[in-house]
Amino acid sequence: MKSRDLQRPEKSPLAAWAALRQATPARIGLQSAGASIATRDHLAFQRDHAEARDAVHQRLDAASLAGRMRALDLDIIDLHSAASDRQTYLLRPDLGRRLGEDSREKLESLPRGFDLVFAVADGLSARAVERHAQPLLEASLPKFRQANWRIGPACIVEQGRVAIGDEIGFTLESSLVAVLIGERPGLSSSDSLGVYLTWAPAVGRNDAERNCLSNIRIGGMGYGEAAQRLFALAIAARQRRLTGVLLKDQTPALPEPE
Question: 175 vs 95, 117, 167, 172, 195, CA distance in Å?
């Protein structure tokens, strides 16, 4: 053994775990207290679990969101799924995938024929939509407008799931629909936003026919990168007339902010 190896201090197990924890939000290397985990880590788990539960049940402040979206020079349409309340929405996913009758009639009275329609749905985290939908649209819209895309009215949908965008896009005769929706909360994030892009939306489309951008939030995918990827996917979708597993995201990753 070389002499310099004998002089190298060995890293303690606690220091090694500390270094790994810097690279992931996962709960690894937790300290123990007897047969259980340390009180601090136990309380942190309970806090994050409560945050996730609250995010699922929190109601979307649609009026406030609509006001901020109108500042982006968007026409706003308020819609509601066939799920009458939050409890029904959670127990009956199928009702969250289609519009209520009043909302369907409202859509049918609007002009039709667009390149892209944005639908903003609360999903399983209204918190994510309230925090991130407007900044993402603010970053995305200039790209589409500069390219002369015909953007339809933005639809804010309460108690909505991803597939509700299919009915919206079909009714408005839009080539593409982009659904901005609150993702299922986890213990590391209760406010993650997802975007689902579908070509030729129609009732009955399945998830394999969509492209998804996930984990849009502070600490996840930034608004600039998400807007760039969404625009690139939309351009490719229009060229190839498809979305889903046959359309790959080829956008290079943006450099990390300093």
Answer: 24, 8, 12, 9, 16
Residue 154 belongs to domain spanning: 57-240
Rounded distance, CA 212 to CA 151, Å? 20
Which DSSP category does 245 fall into? T
Least confident of 22-31, 166-175, 180-189: 22-31
In a domain, 14, yes or no: no
d(CA 145, CA 107): 23
* 258 located within any domain: no
What's at 203, amino acid-wise?
A: V
Tell me, what CATH number does 100's domain have? 3.40.50.11240
28 is a domain residue: no
pTM as predicted: 0.85
